[in-house]
Specification:
Helix content: 40-55%
Order of helices and strands: HEHHEE
Distance between the termini: 34 Å
Low-confidence stretches: none
Number of strands: 3
Radius of gyration: 12 Å
Structural class: alpha+beta
Oligomer: single chain
Shape: globular
Largest sheet: 3 strands, antiparallel
Number of helices: 3
Length: about 80
């Protein structure tokens, strides 16, 4: 996968987590892989999802994991809270 596609995957993953998860509704890595593939044509595997989670956490997203491998974004850095 080209570098541009890798960056796009990270951004799409962040978008999915921001729009579709919260502290009551979460997605696991397999579900995230399916969404990325079916909706965006981005093929990936579960291990890559966890690598992307580390990148997003380093960016400042508070990603919570419950019951093993369930993922949700709980809070975001201030820079992403500038939506009207």
């Amino acid at each position: 996968m080209a570098s541009f596609d890798q960056k796009l995957r990270t951004l799409r993953l962040m978008e999915i987590l921001l729009e579709r998860t919260d502290d009551t509704y979460m997605l696991n890595a397999s579900e995230l892989c399916t969404i990325l593939d079916q909706e965006y044509g981005i093929s990936t595997d579960r291990r890559t999802i966890y690598t992307e989670m580390e990148i997003l956490e380093k960016f400042g997203l508070d990603i919570q994991q419950k019951k093993g491998k369930i993922l949700a974004i709980i809070s975001v850095p201030e820079i992403l809270n500038c939506r009207s």
